[in-house]
Amino acid sequence: MFNRGLAARIKAYAQGGNTLSFADQCKDLTQLKKAEETAWLGEAHSQVLQQSLKDLDLAYRHFMRRVKMGEKPGFPRFKKKGRKDSFRYPQGINLQHGKVFLPRIGWVRYRDSRAIEGEVLQATVKREGEHWFVCLACKLELPDPASVAVTENRAVGIDVGLKNFAMLSDGSEIKNPRFLTKALARLRKAQRRLSRKMKGSNNRKKQVMKVSRLHARVKNCRKDFCHKASTAIVKNHDVIAVEDLNIKGMVKNRHLSRAISDAGWGLFIQMLKYKAEWKGKHFVQVGRFVATSQTCSGCGEKKPMPLSVRSYSCGNCGLVVDRDWNASLNVRAAGLAVLNACGGA
Q: 324, CA 20 to 30 Å: which among 135, 145, 170, 208?
């Protein structure tokens, strides 16, 4: 439905310079179900098909917004089967005794990773490798962060890096697990075997599945690590301050791009943010242009700090401290300053 809708929009624009709306394409969907060659669309739930068209409409609106703002447009692309397969139900989901009811499919057994909280709004069923997952979006009443007092002994600054995954302002370190680096040898071997398989053969399909399993394992290990690290930090602190990193710009460095992607900083910061909101904690992102690594956490003196220098030595107050720890202390101080300026104290 996404590909058919995208083709229809491209054709309409080429013929008259106009585009189709979501409502127009939903009307065409009704006619497609009645047509003999596409009558099989009636086997799927109508709202599932409409959600594909809604995703297309959202992609088009984002495209037009970027064009108007003068950014790189990113025109919607046709989707390929077998790559991020998913479908979404906007309503009609029921849960009962380890089973989920999916309209037009029925009751399906599932293994829940945790108890469902709040009102279930929608469900997305997706396939990753050889496994199927159901993702439930729920409505929750979140606590107000203003009810949590800002105290310095419950505040933490976090500086992420590559040598250590993260350095906390209390002096504790989180080691960088480097999941992709450890799996590279197996991945290279599996991908070399894949390149030798004949396209369209069953052996190639089997090898594709093996490669996807390896990538899924790396992804799941990284996700599990970020979940455990972020949960521990949010549980033990009331104020969490991190840097607002330009990760998309940083991965353009061809020498560090793989290491940065392997670290998963964006996923970690995202988890910190939503878990802090769940628990009613304060989450602050310090501006990316604040010189946290170049500023002395003791006296505020600034000096250039190349990446090769791993220890900060202040010529003004004589402070000698690890580079990452010094940065985390500055992140913590900047975060507290932002909260105090906003009346969070």
A: 145
Based on the fold, state whether residues 104 and 24 are members of the same structural domain: no
Assigned domain for 214 exists: no
Q: What is the DSSP letter of 240?
A: E
Q: H or E segment at 173? A: strand 173-175
pLDDT tens digits, 328-345: 999 999 998 888 877 654
Same domain, yes or no, for 134 and 169? no
Stretch 244-255: mean pLDDT: 90
The mean pLDDT value of the chain amounts to: 89
In the set 57, 159, 238, 262, the catalytic residue is: 159
Q: Is residue 224 annotated as part of the catalytic site, yes or no?
A: no
Whether 243 is catalytic is yes
User: Does 200 map to a domain?
Assistant: no
**0.70 exceeded by the pTM?**
yes
Instruction: Give the range of the structural domain holding residue 11, as residue numbers without chain letter.
Output: 2-68
Hey, what are 77's tokens? 């692309």
Q: Is residue 76 part of a domain?
A: no
Annotated active-site residue in 57, 238, 243, 262: 243
Q: How long a stretch of residues is the chain?
A: 345
- Same structural domain, 291 and 169: yes
Which entry of 57, 238, 262, 324 is annotated as an active-site residue? 324
Q: Please give the average per-residue pLDDT across 219-233, as a whole number.
A: 95
Residues 153 and 65: their CA atoms lie apart, in Å, by 44
